[in-house]
Write a structure and sequence with these properties.
90 residues, mainly alpha
Length: 90
């Protein structure tokens, strides 16, 4: 396995990490902004008000997108296992 192959695998792994975490992170960010605007408008500064909706929304997003996330991760893992045969041991 050449250094270029290792770099390509690392790049693909990092891109997959960003892709798999994006739905949950973006949903939490959107809910956080909405809750922050609500808290600023009502002047309620309770930390549980911002944490509980984020937890619920992230759970729902992972529940809905879970099959797609698993499919992407499995495709990447299978591609890595297929490349194991191409590794030349010295």
């Amino acid at each position: 396995m050449q250094p270029d192959d290792v770099i390509r695998i690392i790049q693909e792994a990092l891109l997959l990490t960003v892709l798999l975490s994006a739905p949950a992170v973006l949903a939490a960010m959107l809910v956080g902004i909405i809750v922050s605007v609500f808290q600023a408008a009502t002047q309620i500064q309770e930390s549980a008000i911002s944490a509980i909706p984020k937890i619920i929304v992230v759970y729902l997003v992972l529940l809905v997108a879970g099959a797609w996330l698993l499919r992407e991760l499995l495709q990447f893992s299978l591609a890595l296992f297929e490349q194991i045969g191409n590794v030349a041991w010295r």
